[in-house]
Design brief:
single chain; alpha/beta; Bifunctional NAD(P)H-hydrate repair enzyme; Rossmann fold; 504 residues; metal-binding; elongated; UDP-N-acetylmuramoyl-L-alanine:D-glutamate ligase; ten-stranded mixed β-sheet
């Protein structure tokens, strides 16, 4: 699904109002109803003595007033606290007039804020996507008061003070919500680590925004869920054979790190590759033949490091990096691989030590063949580019890097971001904290290698399917092991089931 900017979100509202021939307050009622029903369902599982709604003077405050009315009619003890302002939005005024007189509605006064019982609930409806500058004055005081309470905060659309798609100045006041409920489409702010303690858990509720507007809206950011990918993985033909799905070459492992090669190899095989050859140093031969009998072992003349590049003619894709080490001879292998793959238009996947070698020898970046796929974590990406000022800056570095080198780059983490040569970003929806364990990245490399060896898939589809299935496999594994008990081998076991739901 698309991730709209704050400006596009407001335009989507207007397009919906015009296309559906409704008033803006009726669209607001849709959003308030969706939020109220969601909150009532949550409150039924978490007893609350009362609900306090803090409302600003704009449309976010209008949402809050409509929610207050609906909660009151549903039998909840509701208190409304208003931020004083010289002017209010028309829809705020309408919903203020609709609020039953039985609902206490009080203007906030500096230093005289309400006492909030720990078992009560706060609904933050002070400011939403229309905010363009940091909060100050009384609004900032209210935010500080909410953050100092021990009460659970539910934010409508965005925690007040948080910008939808840009960083706010350091130390600017922002509500720390335990839950954020948005509408129709996620906001970019939901997906970035620096906002995690502000957004809390989040959910997006449908309110019937105009589909034609959303379809035609030009965006640079996408959120990848099952609906986005289902049907992109070609179904296997009845008369297919091992040659149908490509022959992949994996260059991986060094003394003490053959396990990385094993994990990547197993993932590649479970990812559906037809044939797999693994190039390791000689020390890895017995380990590989024993642990991964389905793969062919092609050992290097050297004992501890890969020092020679094999003939590439028979391969559909090459992966390099897991456990590779950074021996000087291996640098030359990488250099030769980039040159020969460029000449042969051979798909490449670069991970781990291959990325560290690129970071140390940055002149090699200019030799990356078009559509090369790189899979760095944030620290490895920093070695390839520069230190980011914040998460938003890191995303711009990712766009620029992919455009400059005509490559795909998987920036790993929660909501892993895939950058494309066109400068688009795709944020992944699957995965869990249990996957933050050694070897998880090696599994991803092997899976991506299998998908890139399948010539029926475009580079974009292979990358999207790989990161989504990798995270989904981790989610399936965690259901059995728990997050703390999850190891990389568990992810491998669930690659097949994770891919199964994405076939055409």
């Amino acid at each position: 699904m698309k991730i709209l900017s704050a400006e596009q979100t407001r335009a989507a509202d207007q397009a919906t109002i015009q296309a559906a021939n409704i008033r803006s307050d009726q669209l607001m009622e849709r959003a308030a109803t969706a939020f109220s029903e969601w909150l009532i369902n949550h409150l039924s599982q978490n007893a609350a003595s009362e609900v306090h709604l803090f409302c600003g003077p704009g449309n976010n405050g209008g949402d809050g007033l409509a929610v207050a009315r609906q909660l009151h009619l549903s039998g909840y003890a509701v208190h409304v606290w208003l931020l004083p302002a010289a002017t209010h939005s028309p829809d705020f005024i309408i919903n203020r007039q609709r609020l039953p007189t039985a609902v206490p509605c009080v203007e906030l006064v500096s230093k005289k804020f309400p006492t909030l019982a720990p078992r009560s609930i706060i609904v933050d409806a002070l400011f939403g996507t229309g905010l363009s500058r940091p909060l100050e004055g009384l609004a900032a005081e209210v935010v500080q008061h909410l953050n100092s309470s021990e009460t659970a905060v539910f934010a409508i659309d965005l925690p007040s003070g948080l910008f939808a798609d840009a960083p706010q100045p350091p130390d600017s006041p922002v509500v720390r919500a335990q839950h954020t409920v948005g509408f129709e489409l996620p906001k970019l702010a939901y997906l970035l680590p620096q906002n995690a303690q502000l957004v809390g858990t989040w959910e997006v509720l449908p309110i019937g925004l105009n589909k034609e507007f959303i379809h035609n809206a030009p965006v640079e950011n996408y959120f990848v869920d099952t609906n986005f990918l289902v049907g992109r993985l070609p179904k296997r033909p009845k008369f297919a054979h091992k040659g149908t799905f490509g022959h992949a070459l994996l260059l991986a492992g060094s003394f003490g790190k053959i396990g990385a090669a094993v994990l990547a190899a197993r993932a590649c095989l479970h990812g559906g590759v037809g044939l797999l050859t693994v190039r390791t140093p000689a020390v890895g031969y017995i380990i590989l033949q024993t642990a991964v009998p389905e793969a062919m072992a092609l050992t290097d003349p050297a004992s501890d490091f890969i020092t020679e590049l094999p003939d590439l003619k028979s391969y559909a894709a090459v992966g390099i990096g897991p456990g590779l080490g950074q021996d000087p001879a291996t640098v030359e292998v990488l250099r030769q691989l980039l040159q020969q793959a460029h000449e042969a238009s051979l798909p490449l996947i670069l991970d781990a030590d291959a990325l560290n070698l690129l970071g140390t020898h940055r002149e090699l970046l200019d030799q990356l063949p078009p559509n090369t796929l790189l899979t760095p974590h944030p620290k490895e990406f920093e070695r390839l580019t520069e230190r980011a000022h914040n998460d938003y800056h890191r995303l711009e570095l990712l766009r620029a890097f992919c455009r400059r080198h005509t490559c795909y780059c998987v920036l790993k983490g929660a909501y892993t971001a895939l950058g494309t040569p066109e400068g688009l970003l795709y944020f992944n929806s699957t995965g869990n904290p249990g996957m933050g364990t050694g070897g998880s990245g090696d599994v991803l490399t092997g899976l991506l290698l299998a998908l890139r060896a399948d010539q029926r898939l475009s580079p974009l589809d292979a990358a999207l399917l790989g990161i989504f299935a990798h995270g989904h496999a981790g989610d399936l594994a965690a259901q059995q092991t728990g997050e703390a008990g999850l190891i990389a081998s568990d992810i491998v076991r669930f690659i097949g089931p994770a891919l199964a739901g994405l076939e055409r």
